[in-house]
Amino acid sequence: MYTGARLEITGKCDLQCLYCHAGEKNTQICLASEMTLGRWSEVIAEAKSLGVRIFTLTGGEPFLNPDWMKIAELCGAESRVIISTNGEHFSEKNLEILSGLPQVVEFRTSLDGLAANDIIRDGSSFQRTLASIKRLKEYLPGAGIMIQTTTYQNNLGEIEQLYEILKGIPITRWRLAQLWKTVRTEKNRDILDFSNYRLMFRMYARIIRRHQADGQPFRLGIDNVYDSFITREEYADFNMLAHPCLYEFEFLCVNANGDLVFCPALNLPYASVKNMGIAEAVAGSSWLRDFKAITIDSLPCGNCRYLKICGGGCRADAYRWLGDLKTLDPNSCCIMRRVEEQIMPVLNGAEQAVYHRLINSVGDWPPVDGENIEEAVARFSRKGG
Description:
Blueprint: E1 4-8, E2 16-17, H1 28-32, H2 37-49, E3 54-58, H3 68-74, E4 80-84, H4 92-99, E5 104-110, H5 115-120, E6 121-122, H6 126-139, E7 144-151, H7 159-168, E8 173-178, H8 183-187, H9 197-213, E9 219-222, E10 226-227, E11 251-254, E12 259-260, E13 271-272, H10 278-283, H11 286-292, H12 307-310, H13 315-322, H14 330-343, H15 349-358, H16 373-382
Parallel strand pairs: 1-3, 1-11, 3-4, 4-5, 5-7, 7-8, 8-9
Antiparallel strand pairs: 2-6, 9-10, 12-13
Helix pairs in contact: 9-14
């Protein structure tokens, strides 16, 4: 039934990142409602019985759950465990413990530039994070290391410098993402600005050129834009009756209080496993049944030129920006045309061929555009979109 699970084992965190999608869970009330180790043991056992073999432990900050080691052990030596951490807790003690947990195969942490990182990730230090990553590699040289970077207007100028630093470590994978619209993002708009698409894509193109010139030293992924593994992917015949997020139906996402959500971005609880088994909770969710009923064909995307690339876009972005799970994703609409115009020309021949196969050259242009996502959504709304 499932192949992977994301377990948010605590909402507690010692950073105050200005855009955090989970920041509202770091309160005494929320922390008091979190599941016990005993319940986590039962949830993990059932997840394994349903086919889960890849577990991602996250938070909050997973290392701040005093039972993190026991939870990792419960996942089993036969499983693959990924730890998504803020990078502040690779102490000698924790590294020693991790060296005895062979199922922990990958670590993911965030680094949002250089000086800008220390502003947007309040309580963090890019120098301290880099030192932690290097220390981790010394202890666990075979472990995968993925760095996640959120791009926003104020850190665009530092991303290329960060690339050179990460290349020198080296890491396994680098994921660049656009700034999400979250409760915290809205509270911190005096500091955070959504990226100007023109400037953001110029930076993306320069990064891809460098990455290709360097022989692609790690996997590079840019959300909604590019993945250096694109030529390794299998693209099945496009099915308009498929769900926009079909691949995620094999992924279980459990919050610290037992809520089941579709994904971290679409953090709308549809059931709870705090006092109920996974299979029973999922089977009883009318929200999930309605969500699964959405198809690409049911979205207002029509004969869009880029439909086979974005597949109808992200349901979370559709909900964040337009308040409707069943409408178009304005971020994808804005990005796709820029991918064709600014990214495709810098790709190698094999990569370009993949995009050319997926683009409908006689299709319609996306109906949303603007200098940044906020302007684009405002324009679209004024037109009655």
